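Colleagues,

Please find the record for the two-part complex below.
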Amino acid sequence: AQSVAQPEDQVNVAEGNPLTVKCTYSVSGNPYLFWYVQYPNRGLQFLLKYITGDNLVKGSYGFEAEFNKSQTSFHLKKPSALVSDSALYFCAVRDNNAGNMLTFGGGTRLMVKP
Amino acid sequence: EADIYQTPRYLVIGTGKKITLECSQTMGHDKMYWYQQDPGMELHLIHYSYGVNSTEKGDLSSESTVSRIRTEHFPLTLESARPSHTSQYLCASSVRQGSGGYTFGSGTRLTVV
């Protein structure tokens, strides 16, 4: 069975500082990994995904994520946080040997303060 | 523009009422999903469908039911709403194969009073 863990319920960062939102996963096969963002009273929006290739994946709004196979991690990063980045962030994993079903982490609330 | 639509966006309804939350997508996706989202943010899969006339229960037991008579339409029905059904409901869709993820609707925030 596949699983995803987001160990931090909330991450606080000052505007202009780098941010990291952590995600670790477990799958039996090769993982497809995703990050989504959710703004208040909205659905989830796709940020980026890792399928294969370069371990550093670039996505929307200046976000990037680093795939680390040995640590089974896929942390979301941004060099300089904006107040408008404040939102909920969800990591998801799909075992590409187990159909198209995503498993989501519990979510991390990112608070960027001016 | 291809997208996924949920209506209504907000709904306040009395206990015991029957309600249907609508979800439609114009992307031709085979698979569709319903999630219930806690105030504490975690997503819980309550129903999914692989295609027309296919429906499955998700990880979280739910008193709701779904139908999939057309590819583009995946409504969720509560026969008798209760305050415990108060939540945000998110609909999503995806292709059957390939490397893509899910596309989500904007959600329906349901309050049962």
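Residues 84 and 112 of chain B are 8 Å apart (CA to CA).

Comments are welcome before we finalize the supplementary table.
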